[in-house]
Automatic annotation (TrEMBL):
Keywords of this entry: Amino-acid biosynthesis, Cytoplasm, Diaminopimelate biosynthesis, Lysine biosynthesis, NAD, NADP, Oxidoreductase
Protein family membership: Belongs to the DapB family.
Protein name (Swiss-Prot/TrEMBL): 4-hydroxy-tetrahydrodipicolinate reductase
Residue ranges of domain Dihydrodipicolinate reductase N-terminal in the record: 2-117
Entry GO terms, CC: cytosol
Presence of the UniProt keyword Acetylation in the record: no
Active site positions, chain numbering: 144 (proton donor/acceptor), 148 (proton donor)
Amino acid sequence: MIRTAVAGPRGKMGRETVRALMQAEDIELVAVIDRRATLHEMQIPVYEDPLQCFTEERVDVLVDFTHADASRAILSRAIEAGVSPVIGTTGFRDDELKAYDYALKNAKLGGLYVPNFAIGAILMMQMAEVASRYFNHVEIIEYHHEQKRDAPSGTAKRTAERIEHAFDARDLHREIPIHSVRMPGFIAHQEVIFGGEGERLTIRHDSMSRESFMQGVLLAVRKVRSLSGLTIGLDHLLR
Ligand SMILES: NC(=O)C1=CN([C@@H]2O[C@H](COP(=O)(O)OP(=O)(O)OC[C@H]3O[C@@H](n4cnc5c(N)ncnc54)[C@H](OP(=O)(O)O)[C@@H]3O)[C@@H](O)[C@H]2O)C=CC1
Ligand SMILES: O=C(O)C1=N[C@H](C(=O)O)C[C@H](O)C1
């Protein structure tokens, strides 16, 4: 059994993750981490102090769905305690991700930062990379619910990075424009629009419910301890 803790269990993603982990036969949800432990009526221990949670509950894997500001402290404690993090929270800077990679390698731990756990979103990014070999013009539009705090989304930033990398290989050096829409009626959606002479290719992904992320979360929990340092995305684990 993989002894797992979830940070942010009252949140939109945290609630769905708690449900999914509880149903998995090879994973044991041993505790949750919440800054307001008194708000819970859970059957499992609730901790406000992440380090206390990790040591008392002998946690193997942490799944974090909080906000970048909260997540920074939780992740540092996880690495200190020898816990492998699955980071679903977005809004980190590139230099922070590099620092986590360094710290995880030093601690001989594996970690995952997955800006989008949905299989369709992973394929959208892969297909955008392929299209970047043939088109010179591309822009990204991402649409999210009005409560999302970060913009652009982690998915859009990662998609842009991958396209920019593919463009670099063709000696095309440019920053990909990202347009962020925040309003009720959306969950998580993205369009990657490529333009050529007299034609347009649109690659679009829609998450209509947060269940779309759960198979990816389970895969990440199962595999993260076999990695070394911080792996970005689930692509390598899907092969
Ligand atoms: N990787 C992916 O596939 C996906 C990633 N996300 C990302 O996941 C993150 C969470 O999203 P979402 O669930 O919609 O956000 P929510 O605001 O619904 O949930 C965040 C939760 O974290 C809690 N929290 C804040 N600080 C702490 C802390 N110090 N310790 C423990 N819990 C804390 C909040 O509590 P309180 O309400 O009291 O502040 C809240 O319950 C975002 O960064 C989002 O971008 C979202 C969807 C998919
Ligand atoms: O906050 C969200 O909702 C989502 N966040 C992730 C992101 O920033 O890309 C993944 C998905 O888009 C939903």
